[in-house]
Amino acid sequence: MENLTHRPRRLRGSSSLRSLVRETTVTHDDLLYPMFVTAEPASSEIGSMPGVFRYTLGDLRAAVERVRASGVHAIMLFGIPESKDEFGSEGYATDGIVPKAISLLKREFGDAITIAPDVCLCEYTSHGHCGIVATEHGRTDVVNDATVALLSRAALVYAQAGADLIAPSDMMDGRIQGIRSVLDSSGYNHVPIMAYSAKYASGYYGPFREAADSAPQFGDRRSYQMDPPNRREAMREIELDISEGADIVMVKPGLAYLDILRDARERFDTPLAVYNVSGEYSMVKAAALNGWIDEERVVHETMVAFKRAGADIILTYHAVDYADYLNRIS
Prior knowledge:
alpha/beta, TIM Barrel, 10-stranded mixed beta sheet, 11 helices, 12 strands, globular
């Protein structure tokens, strides 16, 4: 051992030395915080997502001010409407909860906050599916092209309200092309699209479905969201979205799909997002509340894993807490 030349431990001897040679760093600029805005009369904490709330319009401004104070400057908005119907009408109504929230926040914060509304109908349909449901050829399913028309309508309403970024999550074929065409022809060719490109039919979405009251009332979403065992198909989905005009592409969920995230980074130069979804958040929170893990340490490792795998943008319900952590250690 006296003549051992290579000693990697030499570079691990102190905190300052480790930071000097650190390969991957996560910053506030990498974080995008998902938020829920509701037409309900009062804000409420989501039972399966401790620390995450459904905010009324009256409480939303203060909540976003707290986000900004942490150093996070980008949010995603999900809406919980006053009523739902089979066509998801509130999802593309000009006076819907999300366009109201966008207008309010833009008046208050201007360009100091980037607002990316989720574009999907699952929060707004009475049946909980991501589009119009019909029975064709003896099979009941979401109708693709008619749904794309409504999603494009929603995207335009959000852009008109002041959205900085449009984020369609529905997984309909051709929806990026449809949305891009409507935005461009309506004078919003400057508004970018962040596509949920490789979105898998995952069991990790359970807490979100409580948060948005969006669980399917029949069947499931496997006919439009991706089959978890498929890896190569994700690259085809991403390539199609880029060809249709997506400015940013996304892999969702995150932790169980780090291989997909890495594949996407190695193949595409387009900005790449990852969604650290509700189930991933809730598992960490539950374990931390039981004293089984060190929450800050586990969250830090998770954020680093996403960045190391190639993500440019990390959507996470941990964003504000993690930003506070970064503030303390800086």
